[in-house]
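Lecture notes, unit on binding sites. The following record was shown on slide 14. It pairs a sequence with pyridoxal-5'-phosphate.
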Amino acid sequence: MMSSLFLILFLYLHQRAGKTRVLNEAKGIFLSGREADEMKKPVYLDYNATTPLDHEVAAAMLPFIDKHFGNPSSSYSLGRYSRNAIEQARKQVAALTGCRPDEIVFTSGGTESNNHAIAGAAFAGNEKGRHIITSSIEHPAVMNVCRYLELSGFEVTYLSTDEYGSVRPSDVENALRPDTVLITIMHANNETGAIQPVREIGDIAKRNTILFHTDAAQSAGKIDIRISDRGPDLLSIAGHKLYAPKGIGALFIRGGVKIENLMYGGDQEKGIRPGTENVIHIVALGKACEVALRDFEKNHSIMLSTKARLLEGLQSRVGGRIKLNGKFSDTLPNTLSISFDNIDAGELASLIGKEVLISTGAACHSGSGEISPVLRAMNVDPATAAGTVRISTGKFTSFEEIDYAVRIISDAVLKLN
Ligand SMILES: Cc1ncc(COP(=O)(O)O)c(C=O)c1O
């Protein structure tokens, strides 16, 4: 009698627990009732710095962590399994990029892709000339390659932007020289989210038979990066901005385009990127690209609506004290660069740091204490630049998190003012 009562009680509690499990649509995971009631803190609003791993990506990696360890160059079935997984991932990356799979080379991330594209194209064009056009808003993974090339005898023109953080195509055209061998302008800026006119720049490059590279580390998965005939010849992708792990990336090299090798070794990745392939992370990047393409509309709408709610919330609470850097409509759907009047951005970020995570610049190279070169290129005055934060939402961001963040940030701003 006692034992059947226990059984009934157990079944009831079990069923109840099952009922309270809710699907968190945005996060794509099941949460228990209690977990669903509790918002995860601190609220993460720095998706441009890096993204959490997508659960589907993690699941795709698992078999390659504990089972399929074969070297992709081995001819027996264990090796062939890894080889097939790499080729499958190449197709998935190519689908998001809108190119042929044989135009994709796997790298260790955005930095390596940029190095390879820029230095490789510059050295390959050496005989034609030694002039490169770039912008002053590029990530250090582009900027410092250009600086290195200057030390190696290249000349680099650094273009500034309009007040909204966009490079002007006419400036690119005016900077052209008979010895220009490469134009490298990013697809979207990591600090302001400003989307660059890559189609127009691609046209200019094509008309003048100059190679064009774009750093799409921030745009992949957020806006359409598909390559057209007149688009870039080289395009960089970084996995960890796309819900894949850190330390994996890809470089699109248009068929027929020859760039100089930077590494020498075996014939992996057609010899362009030798060394035994990082199968686990390549599989992850492939899955991340597949998910990004499949969920593009849904994720775009989550990012855009959370960004809009954040801006509206802050405007209604701290009103005239806010300035938006960049045009809302011409920036990435997830990125807000906001300057608060009379505020030190560092103080603000540390005051709210236990509750909300935001960036005071480009997170991967912040902490220098200097005014961001991106804001300088946009002609933002030093006082305004000092009060500027970057807030970036992602596919896991909820309205609940945004409302909380608005309250925390605006209370802090009013306190510091
Ligand atoms: C625009 C841009 N390019 C390149 C990179 C570097 O990518 P990775 O960290 O994969 O080397 C980043 C990372 O912050 C970035 O935002």
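Take-home: The chain has 14 helices and 14 strands.
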